[in-house]
Every structure is written in C-alpha cells, then in structure tokens.
Amino acid sequence: MTDNYAKEINRRRTFAIISHPDAGKTTLTEKLLLYGGAINLAGSVKGKATARHAVSDWMEIEKERGISVTSSVLQFEYDGFCINILDTPGHQDFSEDTYRTLMAADSAVMVIDASKGVEAQTRKLFKVCVMRRIPIFTFINKMDRDAGDTFDLLDEIEKELGIDTCPVNWPIGSGKGFRGVYDRNKQAVFLYSDTQKGTREGETTEVPIGEGDRLFSAIGGDAADKLLGEIELLDGASAEFDLERVRAGQLTPVFFGSALTNFGVEMFLRYFLEMTTTPLARKADTGLIDPVENGFSAFVFKIQANMNKAHRDRIAFMRICSGRFDASMEVRHVQGDKVMRLSQPQQLMADERKILSEAYAGDIIGVFDPGIFSIGDTLCMPREKFRYEGIPTFAPEHFARVRQLDTMKRKQFIKGVTQIAQEGAIQIFQEFNTGMEEIIVGVVGVLQFDVLKYRLENEYNVEIRLEPLPYEHIRWIENKDLDVAKLTGTSDMKKIQDLKGNPLLLFVNAWSVGMTLERNEGLVLSEFGRN
Ligand code: G4P
Predict the structure, then answer these.
(1) CA 36 / ligand 1 centre spacing (Å)
(2) Taking the model in full, what pTM does it have?
(3) Domains of the chain
C-alpha cells in the first residue's frame, strides 16, 4: 500500500446524520455543505426550496415506479478532509434502508430539537448505532427558539438513551435571550450574531471567560452570573471528556447551536472532525480487515431495484471498507464465487449520478447489478475470499396479511413477494409450521406496503389485498434448541417463522414481550435477526 493510499483513506470521514423529522437534519447538512464550498451562502437559502423540490420530485418518481427511496450520499471537502455524509431517509420514507445506511457509517451525528428533546425516530436509530458501538455526536439544534432547561435535556439523553453526555460547548440562554455558546475547551464565549436566517455571514466574536468586564458587557450581568454558576456545576458534575469512551460509543460529545441561523455549525464541524474516526476496520470471518493495510474490499448495504423498468436493473450500493477501487480492476464477489469487473460504478447524490473512476475506503459507490448481489455480500481482491459479517435484519413494526385476488396466479405471487423480500424492501413470514399458505409481510415504514402492492401489480401482474395486523413488536428467538410449540406466551402472542424456518414471535405491545420472557425461563429474544 503506498503512502498516497494511506493519506487518501485517512483523510476520509464517513458518517450518518440521524434525527426525528423536523429536528433540522436537512438544514444542518446544508450548512455543512456550505462550509465545504459545495454550495454558496447566497444560494443556500434561495436554493434550498429548489433543492428540496428536486429531491422530493425524485422521491415521487421513485414512488411512482414503486422502488424504495434513495439514501443519498453527499461528498465534500473541508480543511483537507474528504467527508461522506450518508442521508438517512425519514418521514414516511422510513424503511429498513434507513437502518442499513447506519451499517455503512463510521459514526453518527444525532440532531435533537432543543424544545422537544429525544423523540421516537431518534430513539430507534440510536439503538442501531449502539449495537454497532460507533461514536455518536449530539447536536442540540434550534437554540434560537425557546428551549428546555439545558441540564434537564442532558439528563433526558442520558436516561432515555443510556449514554453519558459531555457538553463541548454550553448555551447562553435560548430563544430571544440566546447570546451564544461557551466553548469549554477554549474557555471562551462565542457571541451569537443574527445572520437573518443564515443569509448573511455571522460575526465571530470571542470573549475569554476570564475577562469579566468584557463578558458582562457582552452578554449582560445576569446571563454572565448564570453562566459562571453553570460552568462551575458542569465542571463538577458532568462526565469528563474521554476520547476512548467517545470512540466506543459510551460517551457522546454534545454541541449546542442553531443550524438555521448558522450558529455553532462550524465549531461543531471542527471538533467533530478532530474527534470522529478515520474509516474503521471491519469484522470479517477471517478477522478484522484493516482499511489501509488490505487491498480493495467492500460490502453491499442497499439494493435499489428497477431504476429502469424495461430492464429490471438494480443498483447495488456498497461501502468500501479497505483499499482503493478503480473502475478497471477485477474483484471477487465472494457469495457468487465469481471474479468480475464492477459495471458502471457511480457516486450518487439524490438525482445526480456521477460515473467515477476511483474511490477509497470510506467511500460509498453504486454499481449496476444484473441481479447477482444480495444485501450483506462481500467484494474483495480476486486472490482473497473473506466474508464481512452480515447485516442484521431489523425489526419491522407494521404487519399485514397478504392475499392475492386471483388464486390462479399463485406462482407469480410467490415469486414476486420472494424476490422483493430478497431485495430487502419487505420481510416475509409464514404461520408457524405451515407452508406458504398464509403470508405475513412486515415492514419498517408503512410506505413499503404501497411499494409492495405497486410492484406486484406492475412487475408481476398480481393484484393483492393487504389486511393490517395489530402487531407492533417482533422478536427473534435466540435459543437454538428450544421447542417453540411449548412456549407459553400471552394471548396476543403469535408464533411465526421466516423463510429459512427460523421461529419468531409477534406481539401487540411491549408489555407482552416482557410477560413472555417472565413466563419462559431462559428464553432469549432479540430485536435484530441474523441474515
Ligand atoms: P429535518 O431534515 O430534520 O426534517 O428538518 P429540516 O432541516 O427540514 O428543518 C425542519 C424545520 O425546522 C424547517 O422549517 C427549518 O427551517 C427549521 N429549522 C431547522 N433548524 C433550525 C434552527 O436552528 N432554528 C430554527 N428556528 N428553525 C430551524 P420549516 O418551516 O418546516 O421549513 P422552511 O420553510 O424553513 O424550509
């Protein structure tokens, strides 16, 4: 591996931004792009509506065609770093892909609305980050609006999410009384200046905390007294900054700011780049694969079907885990046991697709897939043959029984649901110990039900009826030699199996999950399935 390779890989930072809808993920992403020079200040506000429009149009088209919604990847340069931001679709587009995207990231930025605290979708995505033990950074947004008590907010994050917090900066007031933030590392206050919703460049005024008079006149006596008291409390009570614990996903550095007015964003970006990791080594069946020491390797984390209906083509998205990729090289597809050239490698940005000639560990590429790749597949150098750990199956939260309207089309129906399930858009289950007579579909986001119906009609010529089921919780049974027929559950519990015959349980509420665990000693249930 040449020095140049190592340099390219080590300057890469690949992360996902997670949040509940409306917390400010899009706004923060735009402001980060602004610093990277990918968009300009004047254009950003005006361009925002247009950019949004373009993205949502793209999604509409995808929906029309019945394919899953793109998780796009944004790549930009900042201060010598090459940054890859993985977008995690939210709202009604929330699907298993949202979770899978996190499998391709080396760290996550959690955006929280200061007035709302921890919300449902953040909680779900956070669980996946914890499972992977990747560093999690918290950006508490909308400080220009009235926010809850700062100590309470941190308490909520710690209690609800079970992660220690370490504020890197500290807000001075909120809403109309927002004066800026105190940088604990620099021991200085950075004053907030109104940027007219980010249309003007803000001034950066720095006041060292030791300069009492300047501080008092800058933020006012009351705010200064309050701040000095809070700093004392913080220094005594909050968890100490410990980079190792951050890297292990046990401690989250917390930043306060306002993405809309562009305050605190660059401060966040600078600290984040210092604290987050270079592309991480990844576990394979032969051990850890080092991103720099090893030749090219990647794994598939998302498959997008049917970009072009006439050809039934698909795009496989892969995260490069080690080495350098170039379009002319031969690679081994381990699961298919074939050496091949990847066809039409491209970088994806919403509706823009750029053919690329080279990429490095940390980057995400999309390649044309003639139907050979599956989620979790490994690609590596022809002389190697290792497999990366599979991507888990994430718990669906919506279930429906599927019935085909024309029973003569049984074959197409089975083929259609099976293929769509293989692509990872839906999960299918059967009644426990019966064949394919009854099919139950599970999805992470309800939009996937529409996608399934649309695709079966359009691609397989099969009409279906979906009957919603009341279950919201699914658990994989971890015990290997358990007689599932003998399990005593609650009255709302349903036993089902996946296509490989693995037994699973469905529950209407979380209470029943606990009750069933209590009634069956030694039973181990998991929210993640293994592929
Ligand atoms: P999301 O991607 O997480 O769903 O959130 P998004 O960035 O779209 O932001 C949701 C709304 O919150 C937007 O307002 C956005 O302008 C606003 N917002 C984001 N960051 C801040 C902030 O720091 N302070 C304040 N006050 N508002 C913020 P909207 O009215 O829904 O959209 P728009 O009309 O502004 O585009």
Answers:
(1) 20
(2) 0.86
(3) 3-275 (3.40.50.300), 282-380 (3.40.50.300), 394-530 (3.30.70.3280)
